[in-house]
Design a protein that fits this description.
275 residues; alpha/beta; TIM Barrel; 10 helices
Length: 275
C-alpha cells in the first residue's frame, strides 16, 4: 500500500490552542507517535508566527530534523508553508515572502523534500487578476531555485477548476504542481471530475480531509467528500505523490488518537484499493 503521512501537530497537544501549527518546543515527539501508528511521514509546517524558531529555517534545525528522521524512520517529504497565508505574495509582504521562500528552499535542499505547499485560501485567497499576477511574478522569481533542487511548488487554492487551470497556465515549468484537499473541495461544492479534468495531472500533494458543504471539518466519511470518486480519479491520473492526513480532531475524545486511528482505517481502504 502507498505510504500515508500526517500533518504536523495532529498527534500532539494543541500548540497555543491551534490544531495546525508547528509545535516549537516539542515537535520531535510526533515522529515516534507517527511511527507507532504506522504513518510513514510528517508534513512539516512553516508558520508565520515564530518562523525563526522553526528548525526549517536554520542549519542546526535541519540537522535536528535529519537526526529525528534517522532515529524514528519517519520521513519528511513535504512542507505546508502556512507562513504565506499570513504574508501572501499578493500583498505588502511580497518582497519579504520571496526571500523567505528562497531561504526555505535553500535550507531544505539536503532533506530530500519533494513538495512545498503554498496556501492561497482564507486570508490569502486570490480575489482578482492583480492578486494572481503578483503571485505569478513572485513564484517565477523562485522557480529556478526550486528546479535546481528538485522541489515542486504546490498551490492550494479555493479557485474554481477553470480559474485554477488558468493560474497554472501562466507558468511554464514542470515544478509547478497542485495540492488537492479533498475536504476543502467538498466544502466549496466543486465536482471532483471537473477538478481533475482541469488539473488532475498536476496533483502532487494530497490532503485527506472531509467537510460538509459550506461548513467545517468533520470525521472522515461523515461529510460531503466523495472519496470513492476522488480515489478512482487519482488512479486514472496516475497520482504518485504524498498522501497527508489532515482529518478532523475531537477534544471530546478521551484518547484523541482513537479518532485518528479510526480515520486512518477509513482512508487506508481507499489507498489499498486504488493506489
Amino acid at each position: 500500500m502507498k505510504k500515508l503521512g500526517i500533518m504536523q501537530g495532529r498527534l500532539l497537544p494543541k500548540y497555543k490552542n491551534r490544531y495546525q501549527a508547528h509545535p516549537v518546543q516539542y515537535w520531535q515527539a510526533e515522529f515516534n507517535i507517527a511511527k507507532e501508528l504506522g504513518l510513514n511521514q510528517v508534513e512539516f509546517i512553516l508558520d508565520y508566527n515564530e518562523y525563526e524558531n522553526n528548525p526549517l529555517m536554520s542549519t542546526d534545525g535541519i540537522k535536528k530534523i535529519k537526526e529525528t528522521i534517522k532515529s524514528t524512520g519517519t520521513d519528511v517529504k513535504s512542507i505546508c508553508a502556512d507562513y504565506f497565508m499570513e504574508a501572501p505574495f499578493h500583498s505588502k509582504h511580497q518582497k519579504q515572502s520571496e526571500k523567505i521562500l528562497k531561504r526555505l528552499i535553500t535550507n531544505i535542499k539536503s532533506l530530500n523534500i519533494v513538495d512545498i505547499v503554498i496556501p492561497c485560501v482564507d486570508q490569502s485567497t486570490l480575489k482578482n487578476k492583480k492578486d494572481m499576477d503578483m503571485l505569478v511574478e513572485s513564484i517565477n522569481k523562485v522557480l529556478p531555485l526550486a528546479k535546481k533542487h528538485g522541489i515542486y511548488i504546490n498551490f492550494e487554492t479555493d479557485l474554481s477548476p477553470d480559474r485554477f487551470k488558468e493560474l497554472l497556465g501562466k507558468f511554464n515549468s514542470k515544478n509547478i504542481k497542485v495540492n488537492y484537499d479533498i475536504g476543502n473541495s467538498a466544502a466549496l461544492g466543486y465536482s471532483p471530475k471537473e477538478e481533475f479534468k482541469a488539473y488532475g495531472e498536476y496533483i502532487s500533494d494530497l490532503h485527506i480531509k472531509d467537510r460538509v458543504l459550506n461548513g467545517a471539518s468533520v470525521k472522515l466519511g461523515t461529510g460531503n467528500a466523495d472519496f470513492e470518486t476522488v480515489f478512482k480519479l487519482l488512479k486514472k491520473y496516475k497520482f504518485n505523490g504524498n498522501i497527508i492526513m489532515q482529518a478532523a480532531k475531537d477534544d471530546s475524545y478521551i484518547d484523541d488518537l482513537s479518532m485518528l486511528k479510526e480515520q486512518k482505517k477509513f482512508i487506508s481502504k481507499y489507498i489499498k484499493k486504488y493506489l
